[in-house]
């Protein structure tokens, strides 16, 4: 039997339950993976609370690291004993083990440990999408990064600095501001201050090239006001709730802005795209250009506590659940 976190109804963290299930044998192109570390992401919260609808009972989790224990017919990317990580469009990583498609797995380099791989794969691939595909950051571009002390935000800051961008980071506390400065952000603003005016002042009144907003409702409209003419608003999260509905005229009158709501899995849907993005991420990690900040770990059985802390913004960097 395999231990697993499931929820039978949507709601608060208390709907998460520890249960046991029997895993099937891997079918064609599938593997059985024993998890060693599981990454926590805000999308797990959105599925648990019903913002993103999933079939019930559901098991949260879209990234993890582990060891391949068995392979089905036709598997060609991995073999038994490999250390692997994944970022999957389907949920289910909050488990001691799972059966899944082999083409979503990437081998973990020897110089990266399992906790780091589990903390970085989905978040790092998200950062790759945001900086290298949705908007191709160029040296000297000014960027606004919300939740810059979080799992994705902390990687975004470091990767953007590696690319030569001017990073304007927004965080919720002085302690988080110190952390983000250490990651390389040239300008760090507090979310309780007038960060719109401050961002415009930093850019000489022009505005930023792109705003990365994972907060949603509380920051969306003001993020638009930080953009330069023909700047890009990238909404990729809903930590404070879904963003408001917006008329296209709002984009026009603010300077012919671009607005997008990307999903990582649309940019890593093919094996070649996944492999290329993962290779770039792991290379930068190995070179020290990106240092993954694991702020806290929890036993997998205490996933409800981890969710509560994440939603209350008591976490910094990435969070790992240990089976």
UniProtKB/TrEMBL annotation:
Pfam (any one): ADH_N
Looking up InterPro entries in the UniProt record yields: ADH-like_C, ADH-like_N, ER, GroES-like_sf, NAD(P)-bd_dom_sf, QOR-like, Quin_OxRdtase/zeta-crystal_CS
Membrane-spanning intervals of the chain:
none
Keywords in alphabetical order = NADP, Oxidoreductase
Q: Per the database record, which ranges form the Enoyl reductase (ER) domain?
A: 11-321
List, alphabetically, the PANTHER family matched: QUINONE OXIDOREDUCTASE PIG3-RELATED, QUINONE OXIDOREDUCTASE-RELATED
Q: What is this protein called?
A: Quinone oxidoreductase
Species: Steroidobacter gossypii
